Amino acid sequence: MTQRALSTGFWLVLLTALIALPRITLDMHLPALPAMADYFHARDAQLQLTLTLYALGSAISLLVSGPLTDRFGRRPVLLSGLFLYVAATAACALSDNLGVLIIARLFQALGGCCTTVIGRVIVRDYFDREEQARLLGLISMAMAVSPMAAPVLGSLMLPLIDWRGLFVLLGLIGAVLYLMVYRRLPETRPAQVAAAPPSNLLQLYRQLLRDRYFLRYSLAIGCVYSTYFPFISESSALLQRGFHLSATAYALVFAATISGYMLGANLFRRLVQRFEPDRLISAAIGLNIVGSVTLATATTLLPGEWLAIVLPMVVIMVSVGMAIPACQLSVLQPYGAVAGTASGLFFFIQMFITAVGSWLTGLLSDGTSTALMIMTSAASVLLASSWLALQQKAAPVGYCQSVKR
């Protein structure tokens, strides 16, 4: 089978499913976290470690899978990651100890989150810049459905199959994706891409981390995602225990909040044809600050109203939906010869910042909206300040040729 035998529709469906897999895995269990805490006789903050370790595993996966996919190709690394994902998900389903579950979630992320890098690198491999922008916009819109649908699906299935059954379902999804990749997906790595030898990998990382262009978008996507991740960490226990929402009601409220991401992704898809990505990111940052200020004000003045949390978060999610695809579109353009490595480091920075933020959120968590408000506001300030501090006039020229291969 050649690449030409695959339709654009096939690429869109498969790449969306692969890229969405880590988000589905993260979000499907959110309604079940209080029940899981009760089962393991643990505090809600301890169950948040399953999210923190998942974010850490994701960061490591993203860092490692980038160089591996440049060296060995997109297909073998993707198949290996999906195999590890299925095995770790089975371990999650069988765990009777919270420590085992937390470690299994780490390995689940190590395997499954490689799809984030490889899916987007395949877009970079196969499509021209204009088609990349269109496809990334469509994928971002489709991905917005996954965090909306996954908690609702999880809450509806929870009374029928409990939290273990949710892991079984995730394992089946991973197995189906493995078979699709194995049977249908060809290798897309361009023939001219030669992986850097291991001795040069650290040098390449140092070059990228000293590159203001690369660092600007990497910090932007990490910080903008961190304005939303505290809501993921805190919302399940906060809304179900603090505001007494049922698991299904919580899932619906969560889905309504995430709808802001879909709106932002749709705005990006429509506006990217008329405006440069940097202008869209700047607009998203302004909107993010407005949402964060509104969240801090509303939760202070109306501490007993869950809408004081949800409505500002919708505004923040619109900004996240605009900024993420804009950063993804811009960051890899100058780095074609090292797309996998650059993409892996880019997403590692995003998820490492997220993991640190999630850990700090857990430390501050006290059953109120305080931790959510503090960490969202801090991430918003870091987002704006890093974007302005790393501003430059143009993208790097001839970068790929300057990297010794």
Structure description:
This protein is mostly helical. It has a single domain (14-188, 201-394), classed as MFS general substrate transporter like domains (Growth Hormone, Chain: A, Up-down Bundle), CATH 1.20.1250. 81% of the residues lie in helices and 0% in strands. It has helices at residues 8-27, 33-39, 44-72, 74-94, 98-112, 114-126, 129-184, 198-210, 212-226, 229-242, 247-271, 277-301, 307-331, 339-364, 370-389, 399-402. It starts with 7 loop residues before the first helix and ends with a helix.
Sheet/helix structural class: mainly alpha
How large, in whole angstroms, is the Cα Rg? 20 Å
By CATH, the topology is Growth Hormone, Chain: A
Biggest sheet details: none
User: What is the mean predicted local confidence, pLDDT?
Assistant: 84
Q: Which second-level CATH architecture applies?
A: Up-down Bundle
Q: Could you spell the SSE succession in H and E letters?
A: HHHHHHHHHHHHHHHH
